């Protein structure tokens, strides 16, 4: 089953002090969509019989998000089966901007892609495709949203253990005693063989740079601090992979040239992130659908020559991201979260402005054609999901028929009989033009209700540190069924 959960974050973030709407809803209500309600009791009934699903607030809110999106889509189709009245142009803005940025990149960014065989061999030493290492590690985790003092304390502990190993104590014994990775601690921190792309980047870089038997300095990843020792290396012969490796290095140089272009543009624009914005950014990343006042939405987060980035703009962008992508961001410490999100989003605005100035803006005819294609994909998605056509049974009203159909769809999803089809920017657009809201605090009541029905559950097993699956904005591609959003984004 494709998972529908994964918006991570702590409930403490829900207490953010700002001019926000009600997070709790009416008593017993988890979500609303126009005159439809999704109650705590209904959510408990759906989740209680699925012990393979974690009983966590983020799973509940993800289910509520799906309920809102599918209810709004079913309502739209019940009123207009052709979707002729659905204005999807604004919903495609993210995709159109991305196309403009790509056109700009192809026009102005030139990478040096000429490499001699000697240069390629030198690069092969560091980036050899297919290379594997076997390594051990000791993980020292820190709390989500840890303070600087907490992080410094954990780092100091990791450094102390690293010094003991360097002085001759057994890595394996210390890993069994101190490592917080249950998947490897019992085996002395042994992770077995892995490729570079199977681990998060800081960890992979350190492990592959070490020679067998060498000990790393303390390495930080989103999971915590690590002490690493590489045990073995396996590298394919250069001659066997040279053509593929050349293409990989050409791609890498293109990415580096693009990064330099963007960084230079941001520096020339005087991009400046405002002070004390971390709490606000985390709040929006974790609960992008929260109702904000006009004043809260207008708060400036970033200033640059010719413009600003506001909380409202950040919220609109985050609403378009898949839950998996938001969950990964929410795991980052404040400093990394602020830099990655705000700097990246502002750089995107600068690129769009430059693309418009260079004449890469999409024509009205192209937008109309794309909108028509999205509506076709949306209708196809609705048919796959069983949301069209909906026919009332017996004395049911259409509203009751929609409730019954959406509940049956969610039941198939949580039981693994139906894949999720995320609606991407279409869902965001429908929410913005409707009275719809999920109440995250009500998710606590659902978790409590599920716990009463299920009884105590065993703690989930932890894995080592696999590289995270990228999440992204919906809206760049085609095809509704088969795991893509109707506006083209990758499905979850």
Automatic annotation (TrEMBL):
Signal peptide annotation: none
Keywords assigned: Isomerase, Rotamase
Biased composition (Gly residues): 472-492
Region Disordered, residue ranges: 455-492
Protein name: Peptidylprolyl isomerase
Keyword check for Isomerase: yes
Domain PpiC, first and last residues per copy: 130-232
InterPro entries per the UniProt record, alphabetical: PPIase_dom_sf (IPR046357), PPIase_PpiC (IPR000297), PPIase_PpiC_CS (IPR023058), PrsA_foldase (IPR050245)
One Pfam family this sequence matches: Rotamase
Biased composition regions of type Pro residues, renumbered to the chain: 457-469
Domain of life: Bacteria
Keyword Isomerase recorded: yes
GO molecular function: isomerase activity
């Amino acid at each position: 089953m494709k998972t529908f959960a994964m918006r991570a974050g702590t409930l403490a973030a829900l207490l953010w002090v700002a001019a926000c709407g009600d997070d709790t809803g009416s008593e017993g209500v988890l979500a609303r969509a126009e005159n439809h309600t999704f109650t705590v009791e209904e959510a408990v009934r759906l989740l209680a019989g699925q012990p393979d699903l974690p009983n966590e607030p983020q799973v509940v809110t993800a289910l509520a998000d799906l309920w809102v999106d599918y209810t709004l889509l079913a309502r739209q189709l019940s009123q207009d089966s052709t979707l002729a009245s659905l204005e999807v142009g604004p919903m495609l803005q993210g995709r159109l901007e991305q196309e403009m940025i790509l056109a700009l990149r192809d026009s102005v960014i030139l990478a040096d892609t000429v490499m001699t065989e000697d240069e390629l061999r030198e690069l092969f030493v560091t980036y050899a495709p297919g290379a594997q290492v076997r390594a051990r590690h000791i993980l020292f985790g820190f709390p989500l949203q840890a303070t600087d003092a907490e992080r410094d304390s954990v780092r100091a502990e990791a450094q102390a253990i690293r010094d003991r190993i360097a002085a001759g104590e057994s890595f394996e014994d210390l890993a069994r005693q101190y490592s917080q990775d249950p998947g490897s601690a019992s085996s002395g921190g042994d992770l077995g063989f892995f490729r570079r792309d199977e681990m998060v980047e800081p960890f992979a870089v350190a492990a592959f740079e070490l020679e067998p038997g060498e000990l790393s300095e303390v390495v930080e990843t989103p999971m915590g601090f690590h002490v690493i020792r590489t045990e073995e290396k396996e590298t394919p012969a250069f001659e066997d992979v040279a053509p593929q490796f050349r293409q990989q290095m050409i791609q890498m140089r293109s990415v580096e040239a693009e990064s330099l272009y963007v960084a230079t543009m941001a520096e020339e624009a005087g991009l400046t992130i405002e002070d004390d914005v971390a709490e606000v950014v985390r709040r929006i990343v974790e609960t992008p659908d929260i109702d904000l006042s006009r004043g809260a939405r207008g708060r400036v987060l970033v200033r640059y020559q010719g413009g600003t980035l506001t909380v409202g703009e950040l919220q609109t962008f985050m609403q378009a991201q898949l839950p998996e992508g938001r969950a990964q961001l929410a795991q980052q410490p404040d400093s990394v979260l602020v830099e990655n999100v705000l700097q990246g989003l502002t750089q995107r605005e600068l690129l769009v402005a430059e693309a418009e100035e260079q004449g890469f803006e999409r024509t009205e005819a192209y937008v109309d054609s794309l909108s028509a294609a999205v509506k076709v994909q949306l209708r196809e998605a609705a048919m796959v999901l069983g949301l069209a056509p909906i026919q009332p049974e017996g004395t049911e009203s259409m509203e009751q028929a929609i409730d019954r159909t959406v509940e049956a769809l969610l039941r198939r999803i949580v039981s693994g009989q139906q894949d999720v089809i995320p609606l991407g920017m279409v869902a965001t657009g429908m929410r913005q033009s409707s009275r719809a809201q999920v109440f995250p605090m009500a998710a606590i009541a659902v978790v409590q209700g599920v716990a009463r029905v299920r009884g105590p559950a065993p703690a989930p097993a932890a894995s080592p540190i696999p590289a995270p699956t990228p999440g992204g904005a919906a809206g760049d591609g085609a095809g509704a069924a088969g795991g893509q959003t109707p506006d083209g984004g990758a499905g979850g």
